Amino acid sequence: MAWIRALVRIIFIAIAFFSAGLSYAHSNTGALILVRVMPDTLEFDLEIPLSNLRHELNKPLEKKFLDFPSPVVDAYVAKHFSVKLLNGKNLPLNFKSTEIFQREGTDWQRVAITTLPDAVSGEREFILDSDVIIHNRTDKHTQIFLMTDFVKGNLNHPSFVAEFSPEHHVWHFRGEAGSWLGGFWASVTLGIGHISEGLDHLLFLFILLITVCYRHAYGSNGKLNQIQLRLAIINAVVLVSAFSFGHFISLVIGVLEIFSLNETVVESAIALTVLMSAIHAMKPFKRAHELKLALVFGIIHGLGFASGLSEFHLSGKALGFAVLGFNLGIEWVQVALLISAVPLFLVFFQFKYSMYCKNGLGLIAFILGSIWFWERSTHSLIIPEFALGNAVWWVVGICGLVSLVSVVTVMFKNKAFLDRTARKKDQATNIS
């Protein structure tokens, strides 16, 4: 039947589409071209299996050309790679072979190709022509993926757009009109998602707020005065602001590559900040050191945030808008945590037995921080990531539930106190 044949065809098309999205390379891949369309420049990552490159350059045993940058590789690619506008003008390109890397057990060479700054001048159409490898290999194909289109808000959604063959190796990009706001709001969303999925960042802030609220609220026995409340809120805002300022500075430094550290070092250091905040929760440091620690820890966390943005290889004005949007997304999550958590903690920690809960939460954070530090510094897995993530969310959920119950308890307690006060006033009035 016709509808059955149509359904089968749709299923096969869907399978082909998702297969393309899930895997970049296949056995007949001669090369990959990853395209990034920026407002003022075009960037291409040409990735070639080393076996194909050795065959093409007739150097199966020599390894000198594998050093990067390699003039031999760059000169070869420049002969077989071009980009031009619709008016026929060839765009000047920079070629720079970079690191050797592995994908699925195979060595690959990457060549970074960029247009000169402002050469594109807002153009949303261009023609890519590349027969790298495939001009001599009829059994190979080149796959093209659109990685980034900033003005359309596409930062992290790779899409398969074309496949080159020896007979046809031209791709015409026709971009729809967009604006800077598309990339900016995509960066905001990216920042929200990054910190929301970064359980180590959230746990650090969570424990930091617990310590601040406990100091001002503990021992008030349900009678937190306005001065204590104001001091607690101000202190929490100041510490979160110091943390935010620190991670904004290091985010900019990291993205601009002014200073960078090995990812293992950064992630291990972030785990150490969780450990330190856990110790601070159980045995508080001097208050004079809190602001400095929040600032330093913010700088460390900012280097981790920078890795989440650097992978998109943004440059120029796009990078500036992306940094602002990404940081704004992070701040929104932090402000939401501050507004929702501080009132609950201030109520909860008014009762004397809350001290044991605080120490218990600090101990849990210490254990989780220790696990993260060991895993990241040794590249080993102690607890599956999904299980560890669930444990953190369970801790956060239980704390929120207990704090909410405490709020309700205080409300009823204050209501009963007000009722008794009113009755005493009525009795005094009647006696008089």
Fill in the keyword field for this structure:
432 residues, three-stranded antiparallel sheet, 59% helix
Overall pLDDT: 77
Question: Which regions have little confidence, pLDDT < 50, spanning 5+ residues?
Answer: 3-22
Domain count: 2
Calculate Rg over CA atoms.
Answer: 29 Å
- Arrangement of strands in the largest sheet: 4-5-2-1-7-8
Helix-strand pattern: HEEHHEEEEEEEHHHHHHHH
Summarize the structure in words.
It contains 11 helices and 9 strands. The N and C termini lie far apart (97 Å). It has 2 domains: 153 residues, no CATH class; 238 residues. The chain is an alpha+beta fold. The N terminus is likely disordered. The strands form 2 sheets. A 6-stranded mixed beta sheet has the order 4-5-2-1-7-8, sandwiched between helices. It has a 3-stranded antiparallel beta sheet with strand order 3-6-9. Strand 4 and strand 5 form a beta hairpin.
Care to give the gist of this entry?
This protein is 59% helix and 16% strand. It has 11 helices and 9 strands.
Secondary-structure topology with pairs:
Blueprint lengths: L1 H21 L6 E9 L4 E8 H8 L13 H9 L1 E4 L8 E11 L2 E10 L9 E6 L10 E9 L9 E6 L5 E5 L5 H18 L1 H19 L8 H30 L7 H20 L4 H24 L5 H33 L5 H25 L6 H47 L1
Parallel strand pairs: 1-7
Antiparallel strand pairs: 1-2, 2-5, 3-6, 4-5, 6-9, 7-8
